[in-house]
C-alpha cells in the first residue's frame, strides 16, 4: 500500500524543500569547491517494491514498452537484457513531485517519441503544478510543458487510464484527461503547448471520500482515459472517433466522431460504476470497458465488464461472473492484437485470497480463470509461479488455503499482452511487474509460467539507512516492504526483514562497537512495533511495546548494544536495558523527539525536538536540554554522532523560512557551530576517510554554492564536492544518507520512490583541486554508449587527468565517423562543427586534480552504423582511450 508515500511527501514539504524557483548557479565561496569527480550510480538491487499502475507497449515497434510508477518515475523496457531503464532520474529537488507519473504514452507514428504526464498530488502536499514531459529519444532526455493545474500520480484512481494519448494517425495531436474538475486538454504541436477542450461536457464528479478535509481522498478524479479508434482516420489526418472515460458513475463514457469538434455521451451505456479502462479492438469494432464501483487502487467491491459494438451501438454485458458474485472491481484490461477477439481482464481489488485474471478468446462470450476452486478451500492454477529472481515476494509467509504464497498479485490495474507476441503478457501489482512468455499454454491446457519481469525497476521509499563497519554493507528501512539486509549490493536479498514484517520500517540502528546487535522499529496494524537482531540483521525477534505505541518513530542503540532508547509514535521517549522486554519512560525530553546514540559512550544518547537539543548521560533515563541556540525551529532535522568520536555530533535540517543548514558540535551537543558554506542541508552521513585524511568523509543532500545535490567533504566540511550530476538527481533525497565505513567514496542515498541508490567514486582520494595551468600532459578517456534506439543514442564520457598537475578548465574534442549529430549534452558545454564535437567544462567542474576524473553525457542522432570515436584530444594533447 501507499500510506507511507503520503507521509513521506508531507515530511518533504515540512522540510521546506520547495522554496520557490531553483536558484541559479552562484560563484563558489572561497571555502566551497564544487570540484569534479565522476561517480558511478546504481541501485542496491531489490527489484520492484512498489505499485506499477501502468504498462504501455508501442503499437508499431516490437519490444518497445514503458512502465509508470506512482512515485518513482517512468521506465523503458530493454529487450536485450530483459531489464527496465529509469527515465526520470534527472528530476531535481525542487520538482520532486514530477517523479509521480499519472500517465505515459508512446507514439506509434514516431516510436522515438514518448510522453509522460507527471505530478504526485493534487492537494497541498505537492505545491507545484503538473507537467507533460516530452522526449524525442525514448526518454533519454526530456523537455517539459508546465500545466496550469496539478496531476496526481499517487492519488486515488491512479490505476485508471491511460489519461494521456497520442493520435495514431496525426501524432502531433495529444489528449490529456485532468483531475480536480479541470477537464479534457489537447495539444496540437506534439505536447509543446496545451489548451482545454472547452466544449467537452463533463469534468467528472467522483471522489473517493468527499468529506476528507486533507483534499487527498476528496479530489474529483476527473477524466480518466482517452482511446482513439485508429480505423476512423488516415495517415496525417486527425482520427475522427475518440472515446473518453470520465469519473462519473452515471455518465462514464463520451465520444467524438468529428476529431474532437463535438462530444456526446455514449447512448445506452451502463450506469452505477466507474469505467477504469476503455480498450478498443478496431479490427472487430469492439470497445471493451472494465468497470468498478470504486476508483481504486485499493478499494472496489463490485464490478462488470462490457463490450460496445462501435458499428451498431450495441452494448453487451460480458462479465465473466455475475455482479452479485463479485467482491472486487475490474480494471486491468487488454486485447491480443495478433488474435482479434482475445481479451483479458483482472479483478484488481481481490485482495483475498488472491487476485484473479480472466481470459476470453471469443470477444467475451466465454471466459476462463487463472485459477479456480476444486473443492473449497483447495484451488487449481492454470499457472506456475517462479519468483526465484525476487524470492522476497513470498513475504516469508505460510498461509492456509485458499491463500497461496507467492500471490498472483494485488492492485492489478495494469495488464498488457505484447501487441507483437501473443505469448508475452505483463501485469503490474502493488509490489512488482509479473509476466509470462508462454501465455499460449493457457488455451492449450498446459500451465503458463509467471515470473517477475521487473529487474531495473526500483520503486521503494527509503526512510533510513545504515552501513555497519562489519557484516552486511547495507541495512535499509523501507516503506511498504519493511527493509532488507544486503550482503551483496548487486543481488536481490532472499527476504525482507521478518519477525515481524513491518508494513513500513521507520528507523533502524546498530551498536557501533558490536554491529551484530541491530534494532528496527516500524508500523504494523497489529503486533509489536520493535524488533531486535543479534546476528547483524540476518534473523530477528520481536520486542515488547510500551503502553500506547501506535507507530515506529525513531530508535537508537547504545554504542555497545547494552541498551536502547526509543521514541515511538503514540507514546513518549522510553529506554530499556537488554532487548526491550521492559521499558521505562525517559525524563526531561518531549514526546516525538528524534533520538540517536553516541557512537563511543554507551551511556550517552541525544534527542532533538522543535529547535531544542537534548542529552542523556545515564543511558536514556533522563535528558537535559542543551543550551545550544540557533538550531532549526521545526522538526525536519536529521542528526548523527560520528563513529569513533565521543561527543562529535552533526545536525542537518531546517526550512526555507527559518534556520536551515548544517551544524557541528564537538562537545556532545552543548554548543553547535553552523557551517557558513552550506546554505541548506537535509541529511548527514559518514564514510571511510579519504587516503591521507584523519577525519571521516562527510556526505549530505544539500544546497551548496547555489546548487542542490549530493555532496562529499573529506576535510571536515571546509570544502565540498558535488558528486552527483544533473542526470542523476532522483527528486527528493532528504530522508537519509550514509557513507560506507569500509569503502572510501561509496555513499548510499535514500530516495522517495527510486529505492536505495549507491555511488562509487573514481576519485582515488584527492580532496579537491587547487589552481593550475590549462590542461596539459597525460589524459585518459572512457567513452560508453549507455542506450541506443532507432535513430539515436546516449553516451557517457569520462576524462581522467593522468598527469601530475591539476587542470584549470578543460576542452575535449573528437570526431564522429558515421554522420552522428549531437542533440543535447549535460555537465559540459558541447558543440558540433561538421563531424567534430568539442565539449568544454561547465562552470562548476573545470578544476580537475591530478588523478581525478570528470564526466559528462550527451545524446545524438544516428542512422545505421554508430562507430565509437577512437581518438580524443584535450587541447593539443592526445588521450589514451580505455
UniProtKB/TrEMBL annotation:
Signal sequence annotation: 1-26
Gene3D superfamilies (alphabetical): 2.60.40.290, YVTN repeat-like/Quinoprotein amine dehydrogenase (2.130.10.10)
Source taxon at top rank: Bacteria
Residues forming coiled coils: none
GO molecular function ontology, one term from the record: hydrolase activity, hydrolyzing O-glycosyl compounds
InterPro entries on file: CBD2, CBM2/CBM3_carb-bd_dom_sf, CBM2_carb-bd_dom_sf, CBM2_CS, WD40/YVTN_repeat-like_dom_sf, Xyloglucanase_GH74
All residue ranges annotated as the CBM2 domain in the record: 772-882
Keyword rRNA-binding attached: no
PROSITE patterns: CBM2, CBM2_A
The keyword Signal appears for this protein: yes
One record GO biological process: xyloglucan metabolic process
Keywords: Carbohydrate metabolism, Cellulose degradation, Glycosidase, Hydrolase, Polysaccharide degradation, Signal
A Pfam family this chain is assigned to: CBM_2
Xref: CDD domains: Sialidase_non-viral
Protein family (similarity comment): Belongs to the glycosyl hydrolase 74 family.
PANTHER family: OLIGOXYLOGLUCAN-REDUCING END-SPECIFIC XYLOGLUCANASE-RELATED (PTHR43739:SF2), XYLOGLUCANASE (EUROFUNG) (PTHR43739)
Record protein name field: Endo-1,4-beta-glucanase
Amino acid at each position: 500500500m501507499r500510506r507511507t508515500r503520503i507521509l513521506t511527501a508531507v515530511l518533504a514539504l515540512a522540510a521546506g524543500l520547495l522554496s520557490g524557483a531553483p536558484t541559479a548557479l552562484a560563484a563558489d565561496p572561497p571555502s566551497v569547491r564544487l570540484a569534479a569527480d565522476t561517480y558511478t550510480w546504481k541501485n542496491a538491487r531489490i527489484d520492484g517494491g512498489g505499485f506499477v499502475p501502468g504498462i504501455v507497449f508501442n503499437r508499431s515497434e516490437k519490444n518497445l514498452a514503458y512502465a509508470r510508477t506512482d512515485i518513482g518515475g517512468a521506465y523503458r523496457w530493454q529487450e536485450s537484457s530483459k531489464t527496465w531503464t529509469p527515465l526520470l532520474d534527472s528530476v531535481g529537488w525542487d520538482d520532486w513531485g514530477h517523479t509521480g507519473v499519472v500517465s505515459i504514452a508512446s507514439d506509434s507514428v514516431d516510436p522515438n517519441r514518448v510522453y509522460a504526464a507527471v505530478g504526485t498530488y493534487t492537494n497541498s502536499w505537492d505545491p507545484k503544478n503538473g507537467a507533460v514531459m516530452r522526449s524525442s529519444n525514448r526518454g533519454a532526455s526530456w523537455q517539459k510543458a508546465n500545466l496550469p493545474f496539478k496531476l496526481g500520480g499517487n492519488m486515488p484512481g491512479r490505476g485508471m487510464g491511460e489519461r494521456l494519448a497520442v493520435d495514431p494517425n496525426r501524432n502531433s495531436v495529444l489528449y490529456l484527461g485532468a483531475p480536480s474538475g479541470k477537464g479534457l486538454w489537447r495539444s496540437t504541436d506534439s505536447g509543446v503547448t496545451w489548451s482545454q477542450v472547452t466544449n467537452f461536457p463533463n469534468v467528472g464528479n467522483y471522489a473517493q471520500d468527499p468529506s476528507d478535509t486533507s483534499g487527498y481522498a476528496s479530489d474529483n478524479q476527473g477524466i480518466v482515459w482517452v482511446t482513439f479508434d485508429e480505423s476512423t482516420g488516415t495517415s496525417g489526418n486527425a482520427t475522427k472517433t475518440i472515446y473518453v472515460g470520465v469519473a462519473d458513475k452515471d455518465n462514464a463514457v463520451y465520444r467524438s466522431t468529428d476529431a474532437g469538434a463535438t462530444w456526446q455521451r455514449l447512448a445506452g451505456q451502463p450506469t452505477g460504476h466507474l469505467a477504469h479502462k476503455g480498450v478498443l479492438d478496431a479490427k472487430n469494432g469492439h470497445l471493451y470497458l472494465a468497470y468498478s464501483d470504486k476508483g481504486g487502487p485499493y478499494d472496489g467491491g463490485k464490478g462488470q465488464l462490457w463490450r460496445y459494438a462501435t458499428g451498431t451501438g450495441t452494448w453487451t454485458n460480458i462479465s465473466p461472473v455475475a455482479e452479485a458474485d463479485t467482491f472486487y472491481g475490474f480494471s486491468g484490461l487488454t486485447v491480443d492484437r495478433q488474435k482479434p477477439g482475445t481479451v483479458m481482464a483482472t479483478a484488481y481489488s481481490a485482495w483475498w485470497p488472491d487476485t484473479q485474471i480472466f481470459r476470453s478468446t471469443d470477444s467475451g462470450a466465454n471466459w476462463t480463470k487463472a485459477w479456480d476452486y476444486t473443492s473449497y478451500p483447495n484451488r487449481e492454477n492454470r499457472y506456475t509461479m517462479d519468483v526465484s529472481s525476487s524470492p522476497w515476494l513470498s513475504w516469508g509467509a505460510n498461509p492456509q488455503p485458499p491463500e497461496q504464497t507467492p500471490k498472483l498479485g494485488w492492485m492489478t490495474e495494469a495488464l498488457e499482452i505484447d501487441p507483437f507476441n501473443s505469448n508475452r503478457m505483463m501485469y503490474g501489482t502493488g509490489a512488482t511487474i509479473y509476466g509470462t512468455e508462454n501465455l499460449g499454454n493457457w488455451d492449450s491446457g498446459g500451465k503458463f509460467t509467471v515470473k517477475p519481469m521487473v529487474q531495473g525497476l526500483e520503486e521503494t521509499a527509503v526512510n533510513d539507512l545504515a552501513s555497519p563497519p562489519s557484516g552486511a554493507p547495507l541495512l535499509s528501512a523501507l516503506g511498504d516492504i519493511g527493509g532488507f539486509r544486503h550482503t551483496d549490493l548487486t543481488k536481490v536479498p532472499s527476504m525482507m526483514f521478518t519477525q515481524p514484517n513491518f508494513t513500513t520500517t521507520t528507523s533502524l540502528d546498530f551498536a557501533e562497537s558490536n554491529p551484530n546487535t541491530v534494532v528496527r522499529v516500524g508500523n504494523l496494524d497489529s503486533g509489536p512495533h520493535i524488533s531486535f537482531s543479534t546476528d547483524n540483521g540476518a534473523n530477528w525477534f520481536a520486542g515488547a511495546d510500551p503502553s500506547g505505541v501506535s507507530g515506529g518513530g525513531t530508535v537508537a542503540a547504545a554504542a555497545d548494544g547494552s541498551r536502547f532508547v526509543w521514541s515511538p509514535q503514540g507514546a513518549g521517549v522510553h529506554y530499556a536495558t537488554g532487548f526491550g522486554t521492559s521499558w521505562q519512560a525517559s525524563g526531561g525530553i518531549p514526546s516525538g523527539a528524534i533520538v540517536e546514540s553516541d557512537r563511543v559512550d554507551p551511556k550517552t544518547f541525544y534527542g532533538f525536538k522543535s529547535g531544542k537539543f537534548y542529552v542523556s548521560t545515564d543511558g536514556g533515563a533522563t535528558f537535559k536540554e542543551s543550551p545550544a541556540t540557533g538550531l532549526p525551529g521545526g522538526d525536519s532535522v536529521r542528526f548523527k554522532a560520528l563513529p569513533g568520536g565521543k561527543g562529535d555530533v552533526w545536525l542537518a535540517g531546517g526550512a526555507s523560512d527559518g534556520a536551515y543548514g548544517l551544524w557541528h558540535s564537538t562537545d556532545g551537543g552543548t554548543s553547535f557551530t553552523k557551517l557558513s558554506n552550506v546554505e541548506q542541508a537535509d541529511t548527514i552521513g559518514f564514510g571511510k576517510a579519504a587516503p591521507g585524511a584523519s577525519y571521516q568523509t562527510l556526505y549530505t543532500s544539500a544546497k551548496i554554492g547555489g546548487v542542490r545535490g549530493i555532496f562529499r567533504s573529506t576535510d571536515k566540511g571546509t570544502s565540498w564536492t558535488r558528486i552527483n550530476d544533473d542526470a542523476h538527481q532522483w527528486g527528493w533525497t532528504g530522508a537519509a544518507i550514509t557513507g560506507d565505513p569500509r569503502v572510501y567514496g561509496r555513499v548510499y542515498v535514500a530516495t522517495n520512490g527510486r529505492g536505495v541508490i549507491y555511488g562509487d567514486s573514481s576519485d582515488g582520494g584527492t580532496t579537491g583541486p587547487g589552481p593550475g595551468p590549462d590542461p596539459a600532459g597525460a589524459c585518459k578517456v572512457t567513452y560508453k554508449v549507455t542506450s541506443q534506439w532507432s535513430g539515436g543514442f546516449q553516451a557517457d564520457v569520462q576524462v581522467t587527468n593522468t598527469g601530475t598537475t591539476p587542470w584549470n578548465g578543460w576542452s575535449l574534442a573528437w570526431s564522429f565517423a558515421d554522420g552522428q549529430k549531437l542533440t543535447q549534452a549535460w555537465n559540459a558545454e558541447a558543440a558540433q562543427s561538421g563531424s567534430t564535437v568539442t565539449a568544454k567544462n561547465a562552470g562548476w567542474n573545470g578544476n580537475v586534480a591530478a588523478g581525478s576524473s570528470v564526466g559528462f553525457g550527451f545524446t545524438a542522432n544516428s542512422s545505421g552504423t554508430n562507430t565509437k570515436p577512437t581518438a580524443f584530444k584535450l587541447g593539443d594533447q592526445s588521450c589514451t582511450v580505455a
